[in-house]
Amino acid sequence: MLLLAAAFIVAIVLLLYMVSPLISPKPLKLPGAHVVVTGGSSGIGKCIAIECYKQGAFITLIARDENKLLQTKKEIEKYSVNDKQVVLCISVDVSKDYEQVENVLKQAQEKLGPVDLLVNCAGTSVTGKFEDIEVNSFERLMAVNYLGSVYPSRAVISTMKERRMGRIVFVSSQAGQLGLFGYTAYSPTKFALRGLAEALQMEVKPYNIYITVAYPPDTDTPGFAEESKTKPLETKLISETSSVCQAEQVARVIVKDAIQGNFNSFVGSDGYMLSILTSGMSPVTSITEGLQQVRLAKVL
Ligand SMILES: NC(=O)C1=CN([C@@H]2O[C@H](COP(=O)(O)OP(=O)(O)OC[C@H]3O[C@@H](n4cnc5c(N)ncnc54)[C@H](OP(=O)(O)O)[C@@H]3O)[C@@H](O)[C@H]2O)C=CC1
Ligand SMILES: CCCCCCCCCCCCCCCC(=O)[C@@H](N)CO
């Protein structure tokens, strides 16, 4: 009897494994692809751009500061793998005016072709106790981190649907998986990205478009250094329970997950545990991911 039950379970698992390639998307081919990275002039975004460029992609960098953009362009171009590759720089604030964002993306697409992968990485943070954070920071962070991801995505989605292909990445944060002391202005903006991503994924999956939400831990970047200057002690102590990552490592993971079309993207063992603990009803991209959530959620 026991043997029969065991055989039954093995058969089910084998069956699930057999059908799993049917539900996971075909990997995106980066050579020759047009990749747009907002926040591509610094930190994680810059490393994502470099990673894609090394794999043969054409890059559009979007950020505000033109000098930083040009400097980054030069840095990226050192990694070219063929002489056709282009790095295009666009200076625009992704959070202010939708029309403007739509326009610059139209220009970029005229030059480098339709966007195959959009990485929404532009973002910023403010930490402090709720009562100490300036009231206008709440609005500013929501504008940059949330609307600044809505606008570029909204501007490319119709073409992606027409072409029946495309990938969009939203760079959330571990602070978008759980609320933490000091992050009352920042965390909600990163939670919002997950809501957007889940809803959008449901809409665009029939069009072969795949969404990835990345939840990086603290990562050694200019933005992180800036944040650390005013971070409350409590926040520092809590954050130290999770390690500080290198931007190159985080970027590699995000690019890999975007290529594979994985919905959840996390780094390291605490990233793994957090993703299981906070999986909720967000889409799974493989049978194993679903099984692991069911098996491990209670234990963790
Ligand atoms: N570093 C970390 O510890 C973690 C970071 N993240 C998230 O990853 C993303 C990147 O972080 P990180 O690399 O540290 O950031 P950086 O501060 O190093 O870089 C931010 C980038 O975004 C651009 N940017 C900022 N605001 C705007 C805007 N309004 N319009 C257009 N571009 C803008 C900046 O250029 P410019 O100022 O010239 O516009 C820059 O290129 C952020 O969304 C952040 O929240 C998530 C988890 C951990
Ligand atoms: C069982 C699971 C245990 C896991 C423990 C996890 C503890 C959480 C630490 C979270 C650190 C905060 C990251 C915010 C990063 C960020 O977005 C800013 N640095 C942006 O600049």
UniProtKB/TrEMBL annotation:
<comment type="similarity">
    <text>Belongs to the short-chain dehydrogenases/reductases (SDR) family.</text>
</comment>
<dbReference type="GO" id="GO:0005789">
    <property type="term" value="C:endoplasmic reticulum membrane"/>
</dbReference>
<dbReference type="GO" id="GO:0006666">
    <property type="term" value="P:3-keto-sphinganine metabolic process"/>
</dbReference>
<dbReference type="GO" id="GO:0030148">
    <property type="term" value="P:sphingolipid biosynthetic process"/>
</dbReference>
<keyword id="KW-0443">Lipid metabolism</keyword>
<comment type="function">
    <text>Catalyzes the reduction of 3'-oxosphinganine (3-ketodihydrosphingosine/KDS) to sphinganine (dihydrosphingosine/DHS), the second step of de novo sphingolipid biosynthesis.</text>
</comment>
<keyword id="KW-0521">NADP</keyword>
<keyword id="KW-0175">Coiled coil</keyword>
<dbReference type="InterPro" id="IPR045022">
    <property type="entry name" value="KDSR-like"/>
</dbReference>
<dbReference type="InterPro" id="IPR002347">
    <property type="entry name" value="SDR_fam"/>
</dbReference>
<keyword id="KW-0560">Oxidoreductase</keyword>
<feature type="coiled-coil region">
    <location>
        <begin position="62"/>
        <end position="111"/>
    </location>
</feature>
<dbReference type="GO" id="GO:0047560">
    <property type="term" value="F:3-dehydrosphinganine reductase activity"/>
</dbReference>
<dbReference type="InterPro" id="IPR036291">
    <property type="entry name" value="NAD(P)-bd_dom_sf"/>
</dbReference>
<protein>
    <recommendedName>
        <fullName>3-dehydrosphinganine reductase</fullName>
        <ecNumber>1.1.1.102</ecNumber>
    </recommendedName>
</protein>
<comment type="pathway">
    <text>Sphingolipid metabolism.</text>
</comment>
<keyword id="KW-0256">Endoplasmic reticulum</keyword>
<comment type="pathway">
    <text>Lipid metabolism; sphingolipid metabolism.</text>
</comment>
<dbReference type="Pfam" id="PF00106">
    <property type="entry name" value="adh_short"/>
</dbReference>
<keyword id="KW-0746">Sphingolipid metabolism</keyword>
